[in-house]
Amino acid sequence: MSLNIEPGEVVALALDPAAGAAIVRSDAETILLGADDAFATLARIEREAGPRWVWWSKSTAWQLVENDIHPTRCWDLAAVHRLLYGGWRTNPAMIWAACQGLDTSGIPETAPVDLFTVVDEFDRPDEAVRHDGYLRPDWVEGAWGTNLDRLSRWAGLASEVQSWQVGRLAELADHPRATATARSESAAELLGTELQHDGLPIDTAEAERIIGGFIGPRPLDAADESAKLDARDRAVLDHLPADADFDLRNPANVKSLLRRVGIEVPDTRAWRLEQLRTQHPVVDALLTWRKAERMATTFGYTWLDENVGPDQRLRGSWSASDGASGRMTATAGLHNMPADLRPSIVAEDGFLFVRSDLGQIEPRVLASVSGDGDLALATHDDDMYAPVAERLGVEREIAKVAVLGAMYGQTTGHGAEALRGLESAYPIAMGYLYNADTAAQGGHHLRTNGGRLIRMRAGDVTEMSDRDARSRAAARGRYGRNAMIQGAAAELFKMWAVLVRARSLNLGAQIVLCLHDELLVQAPTDQAERTAEIVDDCLQEAAYRWAPTTRGPKVRFVADTSIIARWSDAK
DNA sequence: GATTTCACGTA
DNA sequence: CGTACGTGAAATCC
What we know:
Blueprint (H helix, E strand, L loop, with lengths): L9 E7 L3 E6 L4 E5 L3 H11 L3 E4 L2 H9 L6 E4 H9 L6 H9 L36 H4 L7 H24 L6 H21 L1 E2 L2 H12 L6 H16 L13 H10 L9 H5 L6 H17 L3 H7 L5 E2 L3 E5 L4 E4 L20 E9 L1 H10 L2 H6 L6 H8 L3 H13 L6 H11 L1 H15 L4 E2 L5 E2 L11 H39 L5 E5 L3 E7 L3 H19 L11 E7 L7
Parallel strand pairs: 1-4, 4-5
Antiparallel strand pairs: 1-2, 2-3, 6-7, 8-9, 10-14, 10-15, 11-12, 13-14
Helix pairs in contact: 2-7, 3-6, 3-7, 7-20, 9-12, 14-19, 14-20, 16-17, 17-18, 18-19, 19-20, 20-21
The chain binds a DNA duplex (11 and 14 nucleotides) through helix 12, strand 9, helix 17 and helix 20.
């Protein structure tokens, strides 16, 4: 079969393991694949041509990954929809409605069939689109996958939506990188699917050893577990009079406990208690207890049992662009695993990790998205806070706090005075943040450099004191200025990550963790050096693709890359 | 039973 | 009175 599909050619794909697959090219030519050889043919097309696969959602990506097909290029309609309309949940019904200019509040839902069900004379179960223009709910829920006719119709609609999305992205005149971002966000969904499918290598024996150091060996049974728990509680309560009975898991109770020994605190957070360690031995005992309790409840033996497979891989579900931040998020503790557990993250036999993290990513992103030439010059330094400090005539630490404070919306503390200096030294960068802040306070939506919409809700200030209203407005401002930086950084990171993924696939390397500004790639031992080079090269390429400098000094991005066997071996 | 608050881990 | 996120326990609300 000669398909003559060209590299990068846009082809829509709908597939169902039982029914087969349909591929629709932009000229509407349709290729149908039977269920028996669909995946083999798809693998061949990917290998020989490498088109840009268009699919409705990552469920199609999941099917491919499950069949060991790892496309390099894709276009995820749901991911691009989120880019265009903001970071909320979506489905084909909403994506289609947007494309047709239909009101999303009118999207039909499947109603249970009962006595009162009105038979629609226009009802055509074999048509995806209803006479009112909306998608049929049963198609949205999967009826598209029942036979090849329907698959081909579903892929055809995907093709139609994709063309429309390309047009919409091109209309974002102030965001020339939006189309490039749409591609990388799509690939990031695919990467998330692979991360979810394949997991992170973990040495459970080592993990159990570390956990044991905090809470003792694995409990033998429920009684043993409860005895160990009591023993941990007692270690704290023993510092108090014998009649004291406080529930250490209850913050209000802990507050009373501290009051009993003469310590008054507004809350019992660790950073606050940390300063009071010397006041009374119970504080130190309590902090130790907290650490153990965290290990026991969140990152203990149960956590290992529930999230690590027999293949020694830790798996969670991944979302490629979440909330306001647009960052990747993951469950199963993959993004908040205590650093103490890092020694248990070990490359498999015959492999090494290439670990790389972006240095000072947010201030560098600020220099880039704001177009501040002076701040761009500062990024030429490995440590950009040094030239900023020099320019401001302050200590490096002060400069750092001021820059971070400006991006996070901090207005008090040490950074406050240095902030004035920043405003006069880097007015363009500071103006960018100020504009984001003001727009957000006014309830105006924002778009990141890559064109991702950050939706703002107009603040409801009725029945609120002036003080509260001001405080809410300030919070919205902080949210806005931070979302523009954190969101843009997330886009650059993902562009980097998906380039690394695509370039290192043929080396047998695999990204096993994305951690906001850090990549962990597992590579065959003899390909580790090459993979590390690719990681560094891809950062420069990502920076160019995401924000090519058209005028003024180039913004420099830096990564710290190392080859290690164990995650804890770096930093 | 669902939602909110507090707490704490990561960036 | 610096941001984002996920998770768990207890309190709170219905």
